[in-house]
Amino acid sequence: MRLLVLPGDGIGTEITEATLRVLHATDEVFRLGLEFETAEIGLASLAEHGTTLPQRVVERIPQVDGVILGPVSHYDYPSRDEGGINPSAELRVRFQLFANIRPCRSHPGLSVLRTPMDLVIVRENTEGFYSDRNMYAGSGEFMPDPDLALSVRKVSAGASARVARAAFELARRRRRKVTAVHKANVLKLSDGLFLREVRRVAAEYPAVELEELIVDATAALLVRQPERFDVIVTTNMFGDILSDAACELSGSLGLGGSINAGHDTCVAQAQHGSAPDIAGRNIANPASLILSAAMLLEWRGNRDGVPALVDAAEAVTRAVDTVVADPATRTPDLGGALATDAFADAVASAVERLARKGATA
User: Fold this and answer.
1) Could you confirm whether 130 is annotated as catalytic?
2) Domain limits at 64?
3) Nearest-angstrom CA–CA distance, 321 and 334
4) Which among 76, 118, 132, 244 is annotated as catalytic?
5) What is the model's pLDDT at position 361?
6) Are residues 131 and 238 in the same domain?
7) Catalytic residue (one of 76, 118, 132, 183)
8) Model confidence over 209-239: pLDDT tens digits?
9) How much is the pTM?
10) Residue 90 lies in a domain
11) Catalytic residue check, 357
């Protein structure tokens, strides 16, 4: 399995290196045959090549088995005409990575919730209110005059149906419930279309319950009754906001794994940003990208029928849980004092222990 590694900006280099330490250890004990190649994107690439996303990187992605994408500082990029391409958005649209999958599980001692959370948010990834990816040409956001700004929201039947199907497939392997989150009481046409397609897909999964909730009610219930949710499916912006909130409620945004999945391509990406203010200090929490890499292994293992990849992914996830559970092995953002590289070493050691235990069980 060959993985393309794109470290990105800010803390990207540090947490990517930490993630690779864990993956090398996992590869050794599970004999996965992982191979890695690294390419520059982001501000470093802009300085050297005049673009934040070189064409050769884009061309390489379909040739590998998965991508690990570090956080990027796209807010600081120049215009697209000046080489400032947002790699995250570009890859999602270019390779039709329509499902952004974000699990949120409570972490004892870190979660602020009264009852445990164990849910997955499946977010449509290619259109919605995101003006940088919802038009064939031009931008979905524009200003007719200096004092008026307009934004177009795109919701299509095809995109709604495929993300709904991804959610129902996931729920079928979990607790068999999908909650479709919307604002159709106000956005009657666009969210109405989204719900129409979700209901149509739901009919193909009679064993999976479908619930429909308005987005503001969902936000409240994530705090009050998180246990009621299994898989949430929603449009792009609602999913972005809800997944960050749910992840923080369950323990920390730094503990949220995330993949961008299409039919043939999957990109692992940390939920959080590039945090340039702490870059280079070896204090960033790499757990989100480590968990995202584990999700990439699981996605590939399920897609290609390789149980070893699924087992390895489970071991990495359990290893992160084990390390985070001990206050002595937490990074500063979680109230601990462990450095980025030391955290990665602790997770790698935990993977090795879990693998040995599994071999003797």
Assistant:
1) yes
2) 1-98+255-361
3) 13
4) 244
5) 47
6) yes
7) 183
8) 999 999 999 999 999 999 999 999 999 999 9
9) 0.94
10) yes
11) no
